[in-house]
């Protein structure tokens, strides 16, 4: 009999979480752990383990083949480039306190794609050999250059399956912009920090600009419905808005997905918020109380199901291998393969954060240029470090099959990538979110189970999960 | 019902495969329409003359047929525009499932040579079904056939229905070949409890043999669609089966859960086998949710949409082949008719009267 190696982590007061390398897990108690550790498993334990794919007769069995397959599926294997993040201009008409790229002012020159850069982007699009493509326009404020957006979109006609995301501050909805928004394959992504007061304080600065933003948000929601529009709050972890206010800012607009992200540690943010390095327990408490608030709200008002986007992603990764298109959380997280960022000057970065780091002068992580390519030495160097697979902490961590690797985040915070994993903010954040997720998964509170089932797209109730006694 | 076999005469000395064409466009193995009069069509090609009775030419244009002069028939092997073309490899089988819709026969006629010709004439990008009986009883011929055709027509895909009793360790490398990326093996599994599965397929040891085959298929990186017909004997064991599938068989591309077809053995055993999902859907709902939770894609075959509760309706696909599909009179007012499987031609008439359109 082969019993798979299990990783163990305390979960709740009395229980332990056991998981194998393929991420198949169950809950057990200390007595079980003792029997497992001292090779004293009972016949009952063995049959429990084999029913869960954790023990097999031999290595030629279906169970072992299935386990190997499961391990392989936990490894991201990007195929072809099909996701471009494009920055047609770095100029912006706002100056948000935490602007992540230190945008250029509206009047400045030399911060838009040149004709050559546009031509190189279009050539790149012609060469993509993916069936489905996603293009995201970032800035600056991309709607300052609707002409560039339109040329790119036009060039994508040949793809049967395509989607475009315009990340915009919604300050301008002129005719050219509306013509783009009206396309059924275009999605609008904007920022919404909560109440009008908070939003103005963080972003729009004047009452007039604030009014314009909220009016425009209502307008696009009215015109297109909430399926086409998404909004992201950016929060100051030291002074987050009241949970209820934030929840209602989304719920009242029928916007179901809220991605609770603390201020990103780049650009202006780095200068103005020196304390943001220590995202302490207060933020995590806030995060949990936020999730508990939406669980309670979903239970009392089933007409809308609110979710915290990152938690939903983590839950899906726990249960289902293969959710590897979210480039913030996957392993390995290869550099410059299935997606790239093309900056206003045609420089290619592996991620949007990498672009911001270069812009704020922290470290230059450019991997190439859209005209000359990015199969470069720089990419190869970064790629070597893009996995958590052989990290001594991660290798022992119960959550490794679900977790990921973000070397740009490490570089941003510590200027190096060899900080012991457990001491990184990335790790602390993920240990917390997975601990929290498993507390929810094994909760018997009906409201929690109801929300979990909705977040995971089930038709009915959450099925019972394995518990060993 | 759309007829699959036509009355036909030919002057050819032996059976042959050809594509019927109403236009004058060129191509090998094409028989062009020469005349159409009084219910009779006359086609001519390199292999001889064909006279077909009882169909308008428009209905047959583009069909790939096997003309059998001796039997005075033409089998429509690949009907133009149909998504449900299936080639019957053999009528033999080594299982005897209690609800078999096509009870096996002892005789076998090897038609692979005709199938090869037909597939080379298939429309671009077509998916062709292979079924039986049990196709892998002639596994060597079958694999060689698939390799031969896909080598020449990499645009084609195949779906092979097999009981999975015959895959061997020694075949792993062969099945791992790139050509088999175009092949999906549709394999039935009825229960997680070996004795219950064995009882349903009427073969002892079938479950364990199937597990071995599935293991080889995993190691080969093969594409598998799992199939489960819901029956009274496995109805309450569905969640246990879902646990098994989500633990051991997560590699499958799809888990198709299928409603019983009132033909073959099932016709005589209908009242002992049939489960009415509109009366009770609970066990099936649980199984679907477990599959969804663990990332196994479920699909419901042959379930009229109105028999499925709303949250699960999107999984009910229009699975019944066009030539044996029918609808109830009330269906004409239904909002979901175009996405609905409808019923098998031979579904009990009294059950049709119970539909409640959506
Ligand atoms: S980063 Fe931390 S939470 Fe993630 S796998 Fe590594 S040790 Fe575990
Ligand atoms: S009423 Fe007819 S068309 Fe509508 S769901 Fe039922 S069977 Fe299908």
Quick tags:
heterodimer, A: 469 residues, alpha/beta, 17 helices, 17 strands, B: 358 residues, 7-stranded mixed barrel, 12 helices, binds iron/sulfur cluster
Overview of the molecule:
The complex is a heterodimer of chains A (469) and B (358). With 469 residues, chain A is of the alpha/beta class. Chain A has a domain of 72 residues. In chain A, 39% of the residues lie in helices and 13% in strands. Chain A has 17 helices and 17 strands. Chain A has an eight-stranded mixed β-sheet. Chain A has a three-stranded antiparallel β-sheet with strand order 2-3-4. Chain A starts with a strand and ends in a 14-residue tail after the last helix. The relative contact order of chain A is 0.12. The model of chain A has no long low-confidence stretch (mean pLDDT 91). Chain B is an alpha/beta fold and 358 residues long. Helices cover 27% and strands 23% of the residues of chain B. Chain B is built from twelve helices and 17 strands. In chain B, helix 2 runs parallel beside helix 3 and helix 8 runs parallel beside helix 10. The longest helix of chain B is centred in the middle third of the chain and has 14 residues. The model of chain B has no long low-confidence stretch (mean pLDDT 93). Chains A and B meet through helix 3 of A and helix 6, helix 8 and helix 10 of B. The site of one iron/sulfur cluster has 12 residues of chain A, from helix 16.
């Amino acid at each position: 009999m082969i019993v798979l190696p299990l990783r163990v982590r305390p979960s709740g007061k009395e229980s332990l979480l056991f998981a194998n390398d393929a991420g198949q897990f169950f809950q057990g108690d200390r007595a079980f752990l003792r029997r497992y550790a001292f090779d004293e498993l009972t016949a009952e334990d063995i049959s429990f383990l084999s029913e869960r794919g954790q023990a097999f007769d031999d290595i030629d069995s279906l169970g072992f083949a299935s386990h190997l397959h499961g391990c392989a599926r936990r490894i991201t294997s990007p195929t072809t480039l099909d996701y471009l993040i494009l920055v047609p201009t770095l100029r912006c008409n706002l100056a948000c306190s935490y602007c992540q790229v230190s945008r250029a002012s509206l009047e400045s020159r030399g911060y838009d794609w040149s004709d050559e850069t546009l031509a190189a982007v279009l050539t790149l699009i012609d060469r993509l050999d993916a069936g489905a493509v996603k293009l995201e326009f970032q800035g600056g404020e991309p709607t300052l250059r609707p002409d560039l957006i339109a040329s790119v979109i036009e060039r994508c006609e040949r793809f049967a399956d395509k989607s475009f995301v315009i990340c915009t501050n919604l300050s301008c909805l002129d005719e050219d912009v509306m013509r783009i928004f009206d396309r059924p394959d275009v999605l609008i992504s904007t920022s919404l920090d909560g109440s009008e007061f908070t939003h103005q304080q963080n972003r729009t600065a004047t009452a007039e600009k604030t009014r314009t933003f909220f009016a425009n948000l209502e307008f696009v929601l009215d015109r297109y419905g909430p399926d086409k529009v998404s909004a992201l709050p950016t929060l100051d972890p030291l002074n987050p808005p009241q949970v209820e206010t934030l929840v209602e800012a989304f719920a009242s607009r029928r916007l179901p997905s809220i991605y609770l992200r603390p201020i990103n540690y780049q650009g202006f943010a780095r200068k103005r918020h020196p304390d943001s390095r220590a995202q302490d327990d207060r933020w995590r408490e806030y995060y949990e109380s936020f999730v508990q608030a939406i669980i309670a709200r979903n239970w009392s008002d089933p007409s809308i199901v609110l979710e915290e986007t990152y938690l939903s992603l983590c839950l899906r990764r726990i249960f289902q291998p293969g959710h590897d298109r979210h480039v913030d959380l996957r392993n390995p997280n290869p550099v410059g393969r299935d997606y790239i960022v093309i900056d206003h000057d045609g420089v290619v970065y592996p991620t949007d954060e990498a672009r911001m780091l270069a812009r704020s002068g922290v470290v230059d992580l450019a991997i190439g240029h859209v005209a000359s390519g990015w199969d470069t030495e720089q990419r190869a160097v970064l790629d070597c470090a893009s996995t958590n697979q052989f990290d001594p902490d991660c290798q022992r961590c119960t959550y490794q099959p679900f977790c990921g690797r973000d070397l740009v985040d490490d570089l941003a915070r510590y200027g190096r990538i060899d900080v012991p994993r457990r001491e990184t903010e990335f790790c602390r954040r993920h240990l917390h979110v997975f601990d929290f997720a498993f507390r929810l998964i094994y909760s018997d509170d009906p409201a929690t189970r109801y929300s979990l089932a909705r977040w995971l797209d089930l038709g009915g109730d959450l099925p019972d999960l394995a518990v060993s006694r | 019902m759309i007829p699959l076999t036509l009355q036909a005469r030919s002057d050819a000395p032996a059976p042959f495969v050809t594509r019927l064409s109403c236009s004058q466009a060129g191509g090998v193995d094409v028989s062009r329409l020469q005349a159409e009069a009084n219910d009779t069509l006359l086609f001519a090609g390199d292999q001889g003359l064909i006279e077909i009775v009882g169909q308008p030419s428009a209905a047959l244009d583009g069909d790939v047929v096997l003309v059998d002069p001796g039997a005075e028939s033409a089998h429509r092997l690949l009907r133009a525009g149909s998504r449900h073309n299936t080639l019957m490899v053999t009528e033999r089988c080594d299982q005897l499932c209690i609800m078999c819709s096509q009870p096996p026969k002892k005789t076998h006629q090897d038609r692979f040579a005709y199938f090869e010709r037909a597939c080379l004439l298939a429309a671009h990008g077509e998916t062709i079904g292979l079924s039986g009986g049990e196709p892998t009883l002639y596994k060597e011929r079958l694999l060689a056939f698939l390799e031969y055709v896909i080598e020449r027509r990499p645009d084609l895909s195949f779906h092979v229905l097999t009981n999975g009793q015959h895959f061997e360790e020694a075949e792993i490398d062969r099945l791992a070949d790139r050509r088999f990326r175009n092949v999906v093996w549709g394999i039935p599994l009825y229960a997680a409890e070996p004795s219950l599965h064995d009882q349903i397929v009427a073969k002892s040891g079938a479950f364990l043999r199937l597990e071995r085959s599935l293991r080889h298929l995993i190691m080969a990186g093969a594409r598998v669609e799992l199939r489960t017909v819901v029956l009274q004997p496995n109805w309450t064991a569905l969640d246990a089966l879902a646990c098994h599938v989500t633990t051991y068989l997560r590699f499958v591309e799809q888990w198709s859960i299928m409603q019983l077809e009132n033909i073959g053995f099932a016709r005589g055993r209908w009242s002992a086998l049939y489960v009415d999902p509109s009366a009770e859907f609970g066990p099936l709902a649980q199984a679907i949710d477990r599959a969804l939770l663990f990332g196994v894609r479920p699909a419901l075959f042959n379930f009229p949409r109105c028999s499925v509760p709303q949250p699960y309706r999107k999984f009910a696909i229009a699975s019944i082949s066009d030539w044996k599909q029918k609808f109830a009179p009330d269906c004409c007012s239904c909002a979901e008719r175009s996405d609905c499987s409808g019923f098998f031609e031979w579904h009990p008439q009294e059950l049709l009267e119970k539909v409640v359109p959506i």
